[in-house]
Amino acid sequence: MERTMTKAWDGLVYIGTSVDGQVARPDGSLDWLLSRGEAAGDAGYSTFMERVDVILMGRATYEVVSGFEPWPYAETPVVVLSTTLTDGQDDRVRVVRSLEEASDLFHSMRAGGVYVDGASTIQSCLAAGWVDELTISQVPVLIGAGIPLFRMLPHDVDLVLERSVVLGGGMVQTTYRVQHS
User: Fold this and answer.
1) Are 152 and 163 in contact (CB under 8 A)?
2) Which range, of 7-16, 36-45, 53-62, 168-177, averages the lowest pLDDT?
């Protein structure tokens, strides 16, 4: 997908991975992240969320977080990118079918910061040129198999290192700015 849609917001990624680049186990489980992530504390998440006006996630990520109690995004609108979910099934989210529909919605919301979450959605947004910043927190564990953060991209994505810090529990957090051509 080419970067053809005009956007007036920053696409922001904030995600945890294993050292081998997995965002979840093959079944979607985050046990390895949740059990080790506590040692890192907030890891800058609260500060990050101050920049977020809306969250865009895919169906698989939504299905994992929909069972969290309490709902972790109480004050932030959540948009789910899905061709299979029906809008209106969950009052906490809005379902869109395409990036174009999401773009129209974000424009109408006057969004400034869009938190892009979920491996497939991050991939689609990278391909579309929608990601402006990547913050990746590596948890010191190899899980061997799972859902990789990065797969095939239609083109190189050039990154500039903004910062890298060591967090509690040996977690390393790195933030990159995406260089758009």
Assistant:
1) no
2) 36-45
